[in-house]
Amino acid sequence: MRRLLPYPVLAGALLVLWLVLQQSLGLGQLLLGGGVAIGVAFAASAILPGRVRFRRPLSLLQLIAVAGIDIVRSNIAVLLILLNPRAEPRAGFIKMELQLTNQFGLAVLACLLTATPGSAWLEYDGERSTVLIHVLDLADKDEWIATVKQRYERLLLEIFE
User: Fold this and answer.
1) Which one, 66, 89, 131, 141, has the greatest CB density within 10 A?
2) Is the pTM value of this prediction over 0.85?
3) So where are the chain's domains?
4) Measured at the alpha carbon of residue 146, what is the angle toward residues 141 and 152, in degrees to the nearest 5?
5) Pairing, β 119-125 against β 130-135
6) How confident is the model at residue 3 (pLDDT cuts 50, 70, 90)?
7) CA–CA separation, 56 vs 49, rounded Å?
């Protein structure tokens, strides 16, 4: 089955997304969406180094919930900074070491940090296993590092390594 369709979950998810975006379950949309989904799955097999393996799916659900809450809270915090004319955010850079080495886990962490308003993943050094992050309002560097390690990296280690 893997030779016929290298990433069946990806293809299925893309087909569902296609149908939702087209708002149609017509035969033409099923065939066209299926063709696109299969094509992307084959293209992904040439790019991705290996299969993604989740060790603890419940930790993945916990990560989704934690990240969702953090993104909403961060949106509110950034909005308050922008609306307050006297606010003086203390922007800064953080260089932190990571235990996480899995490529997929690092990609998820990069997406989470960049999707959270007020922070951005800038650079990863694979030799030293360090990441450079920009934070819009950096009050306490150590607290921020502890938050990333406890809320995200710990869960990603459980999921991917």
Assistant:
1) 131
2) no
3) 8-47, 57-160
4) 120
5) antiparallel
6) low
7) 21
